[in-house]
Known about the structure:
The chain has helices spanning 6-28, 36-46, 66-71, 78-83, 85-110, 113-124, 127-132, 139-158, 166-176, 182-199, 204-233, 253-268, 270-289, 307-314, 326-340, 346-360, 369-374, 378-394, 404-414, 431-438, 459-466, and strands at 400-401, 424-425, 447-451, 474-480, 483-488. By secondary structure, it is mainly alpha-helical. It has a five-stranded mixed sheet.
Amino acid sequence: MPSFDRLSRALGLLAAILGTIAASVYWRAGLSLSHYDAKAHLVVARRIFDSLTPSWEQIGAVWLPLPHLLNAIPVQIDFFYQTGAFAIAVSIVSFAITTACVSAIVRSLSGSRTGAVLAASLFALNPNVLYLQSTPMTEPLLFALTSLVVLQLVEWARSETPRARAVVGWTIVAACLTRYEAWPIVGSAIVAAAYFKWRRGLPAIAVIHEAARLTVYPIATVIFFMGMSFASTGEWFVTGGFYVPDPKLQWQAAEVYRAIRQGSIDLAGTRFVTAATYAIPILAIAALIRRNWWGLVLPIALMASIALPCYAFYSGHPFRIRYEVPLILGGAACIGAAVSMLRFAAPLVALPLLIAIVLQASPFDRRAPMIVEAQLDRQNGIGRRAVTDCLQRSYDGTTIMASMGSLAHYMQELSLAGFDLDDFIHEGSGPIWQRAYYYEPSLFAGWELVEEAAEGGDMLAQKQRSWPGFLAAYDRVCEGGNVALYKRR
């Protein structure tokens, strides 16, 4: 593990306190599990053991597995499953580690306390970051592991020996198994660290050799994940089938760039985005021309997370403000590092800049875009209560068929009404789902839950449209929140 200076440890401790307070605020406001993906992550972790067909294949192939593996045992306890408390604790710890890492990265590269405090504050005080670390979402773990990778690579690049410690490689593996944004960040960070180490005087062949050794870790991780994906779904890499393509951005590079920039402005304010826009080229130029600033190229690696929204939106994925949140981490690190170059004048710039940015994106702002996006399903959740009551009144113990791709969050809500995941047939149920979906569902399921509106309707809704006899053996008994409940005759 890397060594943290006293300032970074103190900032990490303050972040843990702030994160706990924030989690308490959003818990009392009923927002901890508002986002449908927050509930869905708990479901994926729970279903590894709580399922009609429990197995490692339940980990799935769309989301990367590490967050669900960390929560797999705790969420078997109903309290942790229904509240997400353990997963939220992981997010808070991740938030504290990230804050300490961002500070340590800037301090290690520049020696500036001011730049380190500025970078950590810009990240930790953003309302969208504070909200995400108060939920079971996977972004906080991504922040912690990717910033830890960059910090470890900074230490490797500054060392006199060409060999990197094995712990660096395993941190890379953990990051690459958390979220896809880590893949471009890790690749960029390895290249940046190798450049820094080479400029410090080590022979190019030795640097290239050790960088190649480090590259084996992410490559092997990606191959492992693709093999796991093929074994569980029959596809090497699942890129579609869980959303309806959005023509407003699909195949339009300029529109994608504008959407990502505007999303970043909505999340952190125009001042933050402007400061980051200037900071990145300043760091890149400084790293090329000044001996003492060669390492300043490393914070830019955290901005490589932009590759994911670029690819997703260009491919037609509907716009999600959440995909721009990782850019706050990279932007904060770059701004802090750039300001640290001012040396004695840094405090004169840092304090007004921090105040100006925080005024545009204030902590605990209930109108923060991430909080607004998290509540998009709230009205539907209220409407689904009628379906829950209807199912609870008439439930006869037979299995319920539902698409986890669209209704995983509702399955988590149904746990409060006494339903377990082994009451459901879903995509992870293997041959049972395949036979029910492609042939005759009434042989396997006494009930059908169908999401009829979101993303054009789920798999069952689309199947019903293409094959009107799909639910011929069922009666529609109630509906609410875009979900219809069918009962087998």
